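Researcher: Please predict.
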Amino acid sequence: MFLAILQVLISFQNIALNRTGVLIVGAGPAGLMLACELARQKVAVRIIDRRPNFPNGSRATGLQPRNPEVLDDLGIAEKILQSGSNEIIFRHCRKNEMGGEAGPDNNNLCTDTKYHHFFFIPQWRVEELLREKLASFGVTVELNTDLENIIQTSKYVVAYMRKNKSVETLHCSNLVGCDGGKSTVRKILNMGFQCESHEDECMRTGDTEIDGLVPDAWHLWLHPQLGMSKALCSLPNTSKWQLQAATIPNEKGIITEPTLENFQQIFQEQSNMSHVQSKNISWQSLYRVNVHMRDKFGIDRIFITGDAAHVHSVTGGLGMNTGIRDAYNLGSKLASVIKNHANKTLMDTYEEERLPVAAWTLNISSERQKVVVSSARPGQGGMESSASKDTNQLTLN
């Protein structure tokens, strides 16, 4: 009997020792931003990610002007600026002929701010710099770690995590799901959402090396039915290009998985440039347009940010940008409450402030998607049509 009681006491002691302030699930831009914001305010934080390795794909391709302000507050804006470029040229192509060029619309600039332009930088580099900053606070991402379950009480959250065959039980003050559109956190909490899926709008995308093109522009091919049918976007300060190609089902109604060979086949069919060759694809994916948003961004001590809370068209380049600022907003509030500098009712303002921004983001990205397609079909424009005076997000506060 005594031994059984002792084992229970030891068990409780181990649980008490295994605590943290905030557990962050997902180490993309939003999760990393949140971890940095908490760690610099000396809040105990752990950040886990189910992936075995850090991603090397470009995915999102840039930062809107509002975000360097946030990263400047974190102290890494200059490193970000050194890693990318704000000089973007869109070159329209028809088959093997180079057409007109267009630059960013300077009418959209807000000149009374420090950062004026969309800043072209691949997502993997933004994540890399955020991880470096996080490491300076003594925190590293725990890879290959799955969240299996959550139990929430009035005083804490219990998270059950698995790494390989080992299961860990962690008690934390708060838990935040930054784990993307297929969020495990959201599913465990049964936080459903309304979803609008555009199955007919499918893009192949990937990072590849290109022989035969000068990396001085985004090369855009237009199609009378598909709109922008193909784009090759040189990624600054790398040897890679991001390849985007509109994809339609084959005669059996199937969209095949992307490979180097079918990337090259699609390119030749649409461009007729035999001297241009793709090689060494380092990342590739099929992307379908989905538009959805949660009507709540938190349940008591658990919150969601970024793509876990809202997903939309990539047009306008707002996804990574909105997620980073979700995390920036949430991090400062969590730190204040955990350190007893503010009442816990402050956490209500996270949803109050960010939910309207998410709704705006869904609307503006869908609206810009329609503009891009409608302007590309008659050959009047392409990717540059995705920008407007609103997409720079400087009017949001």
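Model: The first helix runs from residue 2 to 17.
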